[in-house]
Automatic annotation (TrEMBL):
Its main location: membrane. Coiled coil: none annotated. InterPro entries: ABC_transporter_permease, MetI-like, MetI-like_sf. Belongs to the binding-protein-dependent transport system permease family. This is Carbohydrate ABC transporter permease. It is found in: Cell membrane. The lineage of its organism: Bacteria, Bacillati, Actinomycetota, Actinomycetes, Micromonosporales. It is a multi-pass membrane protein.
Amino acid sequence: MSLPTTTPAHSAEVPPQPGRAPRSPSSFLVRASRWSRLDTKASPYVYIAPFFVIFGIFGLFPLIYTGYVALNDWEVGADTHTFVGLDNFVKILSDNYFWNAVFNTIGIFVVSTIPQLLLALMLANALNKRMRGRMWLRMGVLVPNITSVAAVAILFSQLFARDFGLINWLLHFVGVSPIDWQAHKWTAWLAISTMVDWRWMGYNALIYLAAMQSIPKDIYESAALDGASSRRQFWSITVPMLRPTIIFTVIISTIGGFQLYAEPLLFTGGASAFLGGTLRQSQTVTMYLMEQFYNKFEYGDMAAVAWLLFFLILIFSGVNYLITARLESSGKRGGKK
C-alpha cells in the first residue's frame, strides 16, 4: 500500500499574478540606493529651508515692499500714492540734515567701536588666565548686555548730567569746568559711545574668549620655552590666530553701529528726541528715518532713507572687511618672512 504524496501548502510556489511582473531583490536595492542618494542631497536643503522661508516672509518681503514705497510719493495714512521714481532718493540726498545724520553715525561708530573691540580683546585675554572665580567673572561681563537699554540710558544721563553728574564732579578735581555733555557734538558722541561700549564690550569679550580657548596650548608652551613674555605671546600668537574672529566682530559692530538708535534717542530725550538735540548734534540715520515718519509723515521718504541706510551698511561692512582681510594677509606674509 502506498501513501499519497502531497506538497505542503506553505512550500508551494506562488504563481505570478497576471499583468504584474515579479519583483527581484536587485530592484529593491536599486530603489533603496536612489532614495539614499536623494536623502543625502535633499536633506541639507530641507533642514535650512525653515530659515529661508521665515526670512522670505519677515525679511525679504519687507525689503522689497520698502523699495516699492520708496518709489512713491506716499504720506502716512493716505489711501492713494503717486509713482515718482527716484525723486525721494534725490530729495533725501540733497538734504543737509541727512548728511549731518550720516556724519554723526560714522563719528559715534568710530569713537565707540575701535576702543570697544580693543578693550574687549584685552578683557578676554585677562579672563583666559587662571584665577579664582573665573566662571563668575566671565558671566559677570554679560550683565551690561542683558540690562535694559532704557535703564542704561537713564543711568548714563545722570552720570553725564551738567549740574550734578558724577563725571563733572570727578573732572572738577583736575580743574575742568562743568561740561554740558548733551549740548555739543563731540561731548554727546563721547557720552553715547561710553554707553555703547559699556553695553557691548563684555559681549565681544566672550566671543574673543571662546576663540582664544580653541588655540592649542602647545604653542604657548613652546613660546614660553623660547623665552617669549606674556605680552609677546599675546601680540604674536593670540591676535594673529584671532583674525577671523576679529573680522567677524568688526562686521557685526559695523552693522550695529550704523543702526544705533535707542542710546542717542534716550540720552537726548525731550521734545527734540528724534532730532538728537536742538542742533541735531547726536542725530543718527535711524533717528533721521524716524523723523521722516513721525514728524513729517513722509512714508516714501522714510522708505528711501531705509534703503540708503542699507547701502551704507553694505559699503562700510565691505570696506571694513577689506581692511581687516588686508591686515590678515599682510600679517601672514610677515610671519612667513
